[in-house]
User: Fold Upf1 domain-containing protein from Blastocystis hominis.
Amino acid sequence: MAKKVKQDNDAGEEIVEASTIQCDYCKNRTGSSLVFCRICKRWFCNSTDVRQGSHIFLHMSYTRHYQALSHKESVLKGSRFKCSCGNSNIFDLYYRMVNGAVKIRCLPSCLSKNALEDKAFDMDLWKPIVDDRRLTPAICTIPNVTEYCSILSAQRISQYEHQRIANKSLRIEDVVVNDYSQVRHTQQEYDDSLAYYKVFEPLIRIEEYDQRQSSLVDGDKHVYVSFFREHHKQGYHPVAVFEIHMTEYSRGITQWDNLEDLDQDQDDEYFEKKKSSQGSKCNRADEHENLVEMMENQNQLDEEILQTNDYENLLTSRIEYTGKVKKIKSIRPEVNLFECRLVITSKEIPRNVSAYKNGYYDVRLQEAGTSAARRLTAIKLLDDEKAISQHIYNIFLGNKSMMNKREFYVSHRDREVSFDAPNLRPLNRSQHDAIAYALQSEFTLIQGPPGTGKTAYRNDPKHLWRFKTPGPVLVCTPSNVAADEICARIHRTGVNVVRLMAVSKESMESPVQELCVHIKARELMKAEASELLAIQTRHDDGEEIEEADWRHFMKESGKYKRRVIQSADVVVSTCDSAGSPLLSGCVFNSVLVDEASQATECETLIPIVHGAHRVVLVGDQKQLQPVVLSAVCKRAGYDVSLFERLIDSGMEPQLLCVQYRMHPALSVFSNHKFYEGRLEDGIGEANRPLIKFCYPNTKVPLLFWNVKGRESIGNTGSSFLNVQEATAVVNIVKELMQCGIKEKKIGVITSYTGQKVLLKNLLQQSRLGKVECASVNTFQGREMDYIVLSCVRSNPMRIIGFLKDPKRLNVALTRARFGMIIVGDTSVLKYNDLWKEYLSYHQALNTLVDGSIGHWQVSAL
Assistant:
C-alpha cells in the first residue's frame, strides 16, 4: 500500500515506514480478499461485517469509483476487472468459469446483445461479480473480521469517504459519527413559528448536508489535465484545460462556475515518468481519440505496477486546485463531451511536490447551495405579517379550527358562471366546483387523482381569482418540467405570463423560451442598452469575458428582469426559484402551487410568504411523496408534504373525480384500492379500442407476465437490474410494434435506475431508441398510450424494497391510456399484501400468465 507517516521519536521527527497491503477500513491483510481501487489508489477487502455491504462494495458505492484490480493472491492473479470490449465498471461485469479460467464479460454491451440475438444463449451461466452487496466469494474471498470492524458502520464509512475528499490524511477511526438522536419528528400542529422552526431547521440542514456529501462524488473521474500560463492585464495566471462529460454533473456547467478539488494521486517516480511521456498529446484537447489512447496507456501502466508487486511505492499525498470556468465549448455533442478552460484561483500542495503538473485528476462542481437558505428564510418570514395573512399562517401551523372555512362571499350567480378558459376543454362539474370553492376560501386544497384534469384549475389562474384578488398571480411547482408545461398552457389562454428561470438554467434551451424572463429582458436591453447586450452576445458566442464585466452585466440585467416580472399578470417558477432575489419585495396576493404533494413543506412555503392572501395547493397525497435523500430526515417525516399533512389534520380537499386517461378496465384497481371507488370514467371502451395484441383476456387490455428472473446490482452499486425481465420487456415492445403501435406511443417504466439504464441500452441495441424509458418517479404526472412496467425484484429473501409503497404502485398503474403490461416475479411479489391483492385481481381476470408471448398459460399464485 502507500507509505504512511507517523510521529514516534522524542525529537518529533517524521519517521516513514512502509506498511503492508491492507484494507483501508479494517486493516485486513488477507490477499485473496483485497481489491485495489484504481481511482483513489487504496485497498479494500470483501469483509461483510457491515450489514449494508462489504467494504469494497461500500467504497465503490459511496465514491462512485468503479474501476478496480485484483490482488496477486486472488483467482484473477492481480489482473484488472475488465471486459474484452473495454468496459471496466465492476458493477457491469459478469464472470464464468471455463476450464478453470475466469472469463469476464460486461452486461450492457456484450451479454445483453447475446441474450437478445441468440435464443440459445444461456444467461444463467454468467454470474455477476458484484452480488448480494459484495464481490462474489468465487472471485474475492470473504475474510475474518479484524478488531477494527467493531467501530465500522455504513454511516461511519460514508462520512469518512466524504470527509476524506478534503482531508486525505484522515483515518476512519478518527471520524466522529454524526449524532441525530435529538432530531425531532414533524408534527400535525405547531404552537407557533418558533416551534415550527425548531423542528424544521435541523431537518433542512441535515438534508442539505447529505445532498452536499452526495454531490462531492459528482463529476468526472480520472481526467487528463494540462496546465498553461496565460497572459492577462495584471500579468500571468495559471490555467487548466481538460475535457468533461456534462452528464456526470448535477447540472450543466457554465462560464464562471466554480470547479473545485482537482485531485491528483501522486504516484511513484516510475509511474510519473510513464505519464509524463504522454503529456504532449494533451495539448490537442480536441482530439478525443488521443485521450482514449492515453486512458488505455494508463490502464496498462496500472497493470504493470501491480504485476511487479511495487505496491509500497504508491503515495497518498494529493494536490487540490480550485478555479472558475473561463471558457467551455462543445467537442462531441453526441456524447456531451466539452472542453473546459479553468482559471486557477487557489491550490493546496503537499511539501516537496511541484505544482501544475499535467496528469490525471478528479473534477467536481462547487455548488452555491441556495435551496436550504431560501427555505430557512421562508420559515423566518412566518413572523412577518406582511409576508403572510394571519388566517393562512394559522392553517399552515395546523390549527384545525381555522380549516374548511369559506371566508369570502361569492353569490350563487357568480359561483355558477362558466370558469372555462379560452382555447381549452370545458370544465366538468367537479372541476367547476373546486374553482368555485377556491373563490370563497383563503386556503384551498384540490386533490387530483391520475387523469382527472388537474390542469384545468391552473390554465388561467388570473381568470380563477378575477372576482376578488388584485395584482399578479404566482404559480409554482417543484420541478422545472412541470413549470414549463404550466407556463405553456397558461400562455395558450392569452394571459400575460412569464417564466422565471434559475440563473443556472438560463443558458439552457427552454420549451417556453420566448416567455422566459431573461429572454424578455434581453429584448429590452436590445432596445435600451446595447452595450450590455454586447457582453451577453460575446458570452453566448464563447468569447472570454473579464469577470468584472460579467458581474456588471449580471447586476444591470437584473434591473431589466424585474421590469419584466412587474409587468406580468402571472409569474411561473419552481418553488425554490420563488425565493430568488429578483422577487424580493414583490407581493403576490394569490399563490398557486401545483404538484404540491411532491414538494417538502418548506419548499411549498417559499412562494406563500410573498404576501399571499389566497393559496391553492393542488396535488394527490395518494401518489409519490417529495424526494428526500437523508434517511434521518425520512424517519423524522420530512418527506411528508404540507398538502398531505393538512389532509391528515382534517382539512378537506376538493376532489376532482372524473378520469379521462385510462381505458375503464385499467382504472378499476386504483379507483377502489386508493380512492374508495369515488372516481368516475369520463371515457368509455369505445374511446380506447383494443388492438390485436395477444392479451390473454381479449376484453381487457391488461397483462401480468410472470417472469422468473434474477436481480443483481445495477451499474452504480445503488440500484438493481434484472436481465431476464429486461429481455422480456424488449420482446413485449417488439410485439406491440408488430400490432401497429408506433415507438413514441410506448413507454417503459421501472422503479430502479439500474434497470432503466439496462432497458435503454437493450432498446437501443434493438433499434427501438425512440421508445421512452423512464423511472416511475419521473413519469408521475405523465401518460402514454401503452405502458410496460418492469418490477425487477427477484430474490430468495423475498425482499421487494420500495415496491411495497402503495403510492409508487398507484403511480405505476395509472400511466397507460390504452394498455398496460407488467413484467415481474410473482413468487416474490405475492408475499407482500398489497401486491398479493393486485395479483389476485389479475388472476380473477385471467390476465396473470406464464409462458411466452402468444403462448400464454394461466398462472396460479
Remarks:
- Confidence is low (pLDDT under 50) at residues 1-18, 264-316.
